[in-house]
Design goal:
35% helix, kinase activity, 317 residues, UDP-N-acetylmuramoyl-L-alanine:D-glutamate ligase, 9-stranded mixed sheet, 21% strand, ATP binding, PfkB_Carbo_kinase, alpha/beta, transferase
Length: 317
């Protein structure tokens, strides 16, 4: 099974256990958050040797994050630490109706934002590996942007496959113009591009999944575009294997939407690395995305092999 690499910022997640605005809530639970951390956990649970590249503070949250990832089977040898920067944090409100919960990010000048290329000079991405990058890692700082491009260059030189999830976070960028330019620049360097429909519209100026996919497929590097369509499933277009739509998995009660896109990426990329056909791969992606809607945690829904076999073909309640 292929080795899997990803880079990002893991954060300590404090989730409110009571309704109300975050400034009035007294009770919270602690867990792990971060788009790339979610993907790393999901891939590890499916049996991939997963390397997570990051930096945390030498504080209690940094130690908690490393311990949590190791307990999930993620290889943490490339997580460094900083005594001069703190671990990022996110505080999430309790959503009672399944809508997007209010969140507060405490990540400015975080340890992860201080990552440099020299921190990971010993990382070797071999030809039978896969690298997953998100737009969040690009946005953390100019140094992390440079680092992401350096890792992509290493992966390209070795012949490893590369996927990219834009994961748009406007608050992390100085301007929308800079954001669009940077995200599209990275997307055009990768093999698999995984935007949501609204993200694709913003980044390309087009409105339909077909037009968005064609925009990215104009790059010689991009071979597959998969566009998340929410309750309408997903659209895919592969340069050699064609295009199509996959229906969404029915979810009767949505608990929390956070982490659904990361789960979708886990389902899609894992299936492609296992050489499943496109319909099966996107079908697994929609299943993983749907299960994420049924729990509050960012990564609690991510399935292992046994759970995946049981869940295929299920209706979620």
């Amino acid at each position: 099974m292929k080795s899997f690499f990803t880079i990002g910022e893991p954060m300590a997640l404090l989730s409110a256990i009571q309704s109300g605005s975050l400034n009035t809530v007294d009770g919270f639970t602690r867990s792990l958050a971060g788009a790339e951390a979610n993907v790393a956990i999901g891939m590890a649970r499916l049996g991939f040797h997963t390397y997570y590249l990051s930096k945390v503070g030498t504080d209690c949250f940094g130690r908690f994050i490393v311990d949590t990832l190791e307990n999930e089977g993620v290889d943490t040898r490339y997580i460094t630490s900083s005594s001069s920067h703190s671990t990022g944090m996110v505080v999430k409100a309790l959503s009672q109706d399944g809508s997007d919960p209010a969140v507060d990010y405490l990540r400015k000048n975080s340890a992860a934002s201080s990552m440099h290329c020299h921190d990971f000079s010993d990382v070797v991405i071999e030809s039978d590996s896969h690298l997953h990058v998100t737009g969040i890692s690009l946005a953390l700082s100019p140094h992390t942007n440079e680092l992401c491009h350096d890792l992509v260059s290493r992966a390209q030189r070795s012949g490893a496959s590369i996927s990219f999830d834009p994961n748009i976070r406007p608050a992390l960028w100085t301007s929308e113009q800079d954001m669009v330019s940077a995200l599209n620049d990275m997307a055009m360097r990768c093999n698999i591009v995984l935007p949501g429909l609204s993200e694709g519209c913003l980044l390309t100026g087009f409105e339909t999944p077909e037009e968005i996919a064609q925009f990215y497929l104009s790059s010689s590097n991009v071979t597959l575009v998969v566009i998340k369509l929410g309750e309408n499933g997903a659209y895919y277009h592969d340069k050699t294997r064609g295009e199509g739509y996959i229906d969404a998995v029915e979810v009767r009660h949505i608990v929390d939407t956070v982490g659904a896109g990361d789960a979708f990426a886990v389902g899609c990329v894992s299936a492609l690395l296992e050489n499943l056909d496109l319909q099966q791969a996107i079908g697994r992606a929609t299943l993983f995305g749907a299960t994420a809607l049924t729990v509050r945690g960012d990564n609690e829904s991510l399935m292992n092999r046994e759970q995946l076999l049981r869940m295929q073909g299920a209706t979620l309640v």
